[in-house]
Amino acid sequence: MKAIAITHILQMEPSLTQITLRGWVRSFRSNRFIALNDGSTINNIQCVVDFENFDEAVLKEVTTGAAIEVKGTLVASQGQGQDVEIQVSDIEVLGKADPEEVKLTILSPKRHSLEKLREQAHLRVRTNTFGAIMRVRSKLSFAIHEYFQKNDFYYMHTPIITGSDAEGAGEMFRVTNLDPVKPPLTDDGSVNYAEDFFEKETNLTVSGQLEAETYAMGLGKVYTFGPTFRAENSNTSRHLAEFWMIEPEVAFNDLADNMDLAEDFIKYVVNYALENCADDLEFLENRLLQEEKSKPQAERSEMALRDKLKFVLENNFKRVSYTEAIDILKSSKPNKKKKFKYLIEEWGADLQSEHERFLVEKHFKCPVILFDYPAKIKAFYMRLNDDGKTVRAMDVLFPGIGEIVGGSQREERYDVLKEKMAAMDISEEELHWYLDLRKFGTCVHSGFGLGFERLVLFVTGMGNIRDVIPYPRTPGNASF
Amino acid sequence: MKAIAITHILQMEPSLTQITLRGWVRSFRSNRFIALNDGSTINNIQCVVDFENFDEAVLKEVTTGAAIEVKGTLVASQGQGQDVEIQVSDIEVLGKADPEEVKLTILSPKRHSLEKLREQAHLRVRTNTFGAIMRVRSKLSFAIHEYFQKNDFYYMHTPIITGSDAEGAGEMFRVTNLDPVKPPLTDDGSVNYAEDFFEKETNLTVSGQLEAETYAMGLGKVYTFGPTFRAENSNTSRHLAEFWMIEPEVAFNDLADNMDLAEDFIKYVVNYALENCADDLEFLENRLLQEEKSKPQAERSEMALRDKLKFVLENNFKRVSYTEAIDILKSSKPNKKKKFKYLIEEWGADLQSEHERFLVEKHFKCPVILFDYPAKIKAFYMRLNDDGKTVRAMDVLFPGIGEIVGGSQREERYDVLKEKMAAMDISEEELHWYLDLRKFGTCVHSGFGLGFERLVLFVTGMGNIRDVIPYPRTPGNASF
Predict the structure, then answer these.
(1) Across the interface, do B479 and A163 touch by the CB < 8 Å criterion?
(2) Please, where in chain A does CATH 2.40.50.140 lie?
(3) pLDDT confidence tier of residue A222, bands split at 50, 70 and 90
(4) Do B219 and A135 touch (CB under 8 A)?
(5) Which regions form coiled coils (chains A, B) (predicted)?
């Protein structure tokens, strides 16, 4: 008989029809109440066993972590905590879980730290916390596709292995097939990449933006959602060597359109999570409350998780130019009292995380979009403003997360782009195709990148980015 | 004023309200009819210019490939070929396209070969053919997510950089940050990967299956959709070094369930394309008809593109055991007449593309699912049948494409798996986590992999896999 998913059983009306369900035992109390979970929802279903009618040897194998098949009828629950439960007529143990071994793993009911669970990344998804996170992650992924598809964007896969080293977003990983001990060399002693698989040096992409621009010039509105890489030795709670990024790119959009898109998009996906992940978010909200109980009052969140998500939906993102932001920061208390690690002294300073957090969390108390940054601290492809010193860049800053989106209107003028590339020493030969876009029907266009894991961090209320991706890659860590 | 996408304008009723549209000029006939395209659809909108009312200098810049903004009203068309057209009141040229330069690129109206266009991969999406392919590709991607999400699967991102070399699906690319000329060596002269970024040797993934299994054991039903890599020197029309793969994995599914899932899934996404890509598929069908006109009758498709897609929807996939298939092949005409390159002489032979195509295209004349293959020609993780010599593997074979899906029920028995790993020399230490799944609540489970580009090939009727991905990676080629 086909098994029914527990998430659906919990929505069904009691009935005399026998049903089948399969899942893993979360607990077995009093030789009578099996809490069964199949991963379809955070909620267990209670399966009530009349132990006198069952073989004792079978019941002995119904232990935490075991996989079982249950047959029975759905009845109104007599107990508290659930509306319905299964009156069990039949149990089959499909896969045992040795209780002694279970004690040593995460399947044990005692609490394990998040750090410890990272070492058991293949089992941690069986816990309530990671089950909830990964279900939310999945729903957010779908919300992203649904948003763009509903709004006439085309999804494109930009290359992961890239022959271009001009993306400029950070350190890259080399991809190679050459002899690792004795690579072939050229006469001048450098590696002879002509003998490599792609007959040139190749790296893992740091961004699909430049390729996405090529497609926006044909399809109009496109987005990417794929893995990107940074070979940076930063062991922080916000950085991964491998992470997923979403990059929409839209022909004919200027910077104001780009801000509208970013705000509308983020609100859509956050709302989608609120509507489609209610149980998981409730669990994660309570988890966060518990976790914060051990912190001093001042470090606790001002809002509960779901209130924070609703706050994002209900408020406009405050749009502030870099120049205004510098004025606010210059005359701010932490700047005057020298509490900032990097004091803001003049226009042109690069903003640090402490400044961004001050603006978002203390000054405006809402998501902020900073725009029109100094050209010299931003990438070569950003549209130069008429003032000749700022570019049409934008960063969306979120409370607790910092930068969640970075984007810009792109420089669409051939001559200006060529000049900037020369000034920044970017090879024209390498990017001839990117320049071509400005030769044939160039137009105003804009886009942004959103780091997916930062979004998942925000929505789940987790504190470390390693806990919101199945198998995190960080310096020294590529297990599994 | 906000521009409206041409795909929507073509659905609107004529009206006196002025609207704005932006796009690229496909042609400008008789100084009067601009065919404008914005990528939102394969269809151009005709913009009618009363040239006496326009500055001649502006009209001179309205050339193929130029980006323009048009204002006007939507009126019923007087001409043939379209229901509505734009009566233009205003034109602004946003980005010119020098006609002399255009002649040298794909923007020129004369036909270019598909091969030639690959060298201009940054511009080819502006052609009708590649615009259509990439829109279909996007819709198919969404259909995949929609199918799984509707059916309670959770999407997971399996790692791209993997420390495991036991995936066993093919040659891998190395990912490294070590000095490319003089890598650090250990005392025994091998590369000292302890000094590399991840402190071990790492490669690009060839499959997310093993990690997907870990999540199926927690979330029940999961799927991946991500890039995978093969460092194989095969320059064929069906292989890429970088391609996208979909891998569902379901706890408690046996091989029959797995076949049901594969068939239901493929039919869903093919139907989605038929329903949501009508115009693009019509174009691609006609393109294929044109292309085949130059071929001898015998090599032409028996069915038009959309008929072929409907045929897949309307027919059950024929399920045939490997053993039956061998019997059919042994006594087939091409085997007896020695027309096969590899003659089928006995049970145990690995099937080649010629055999698969014979079964699908000549014998059964429909999609075929082959199952229960000899254990010795399949991977270690496949469930051994009680006969001790076959495994619960399955391949879905499609006309013109060959293998589109490969999958299996997984070996869920700890002892059997351990034994097979030892026999096949697969490191237990490396895969301790994979063995763990069989220790804690193991259960029957199954999954498969579908090469996304092969699906796109099938649905678009294209002949070369390099033409259905934006930037193909093949031996010697990682341009852009």
Answers:
(1) yes
(2) 6-107
(3) very high
(4) yes
(5) 274-301
Domain boundaries for CATH 3.30.930.10 within chain A: 130-159+215-227+235-467
How far is B118 from A436, CA to CA, in rounded Å?
15
CATH superfamily ID and name for A6-107 = Nucleic acid-binding proteins (2.40.50.140)
Q: Render pLDDT for A11-46 as a digit per residue (tens, 0 to 9).
A: 999 999 999 999 999 999 999 999 999 999 999 999
Contact A280, A242 (CB under 8 A): no
CB B321 within 8 A of CB B370: yes
Q: How far is A69 from chain B (nearest CA, A)?
A: 10
Helix (H, G, I), strand (E, B) or coil at A374: strand
Partner-chain contact A95 B478, CB within 8 Å: no
Token pair of A351, please?
A: 């903003």
Query: The pTM is what?
Result: 0.97
- Look at chain B and count its residues: 480
Question: How far A142 CA lies from chain B's nearest CA (Å)?
Answer: 7
Strands (E), B297-362: 318-321
C-alpha–C-alpha distance, residues B154 and B437, integer Å: 19
- Burial class of residue B111 in the structure, from the number of CB atoms within 10 Å of its CB (0-12 exposed, 13-18 middle, 19+ buried): exposed
Q: Is the ipTM of this complex over 0.90?
A: yes
Q: Residue B410's beta-bridge partner residues?
A: B382
- Segment (H or E) for B224: strand B221-229
Query: Cβ atoms within 10 A of the Cβ of A63, count?
Result: 19
CATH architecture of A130-159+215-227+235-467: 2-Layer Sandwich (3.30)
Contact call for residues A329 and A347 (beta carbons, < 8 A):
no
* B95 interaction partners in chain A (CB closer than 8 Å): 412, 438, 440-443
CA distance A260 to chain B (A): 13
Q: Tell me, what DSSP letter sits at residue A351? A: P
Nearest to A190 among B181, B189, B197 (CB): B181
| A220–B95 C-beta distance less than 8 A | no
Q: Which helix (H) or strand (E) holds B330?
A: helix B322-330
pLDDT for A299 equals 82
Residues sharing a CB contact under 8 Å with residue A270, sequence separation 6 or more, in sequence order:
A309, A312, A313, A459
Min Cα–Cα distance to chain A from B36, Å = 12
Asked if A226 and A430 touch (Cβ cutoff 8 Å), the reply is: no
Q: Which helix (H) or strand (E) holds A132?
A: helix A128-150
Q: Which amino acid is at B215?
A: Y
* Residue pair B172/B165 in contact by the 8 Å Cβ criterion: yes
DSSP state of A469: S
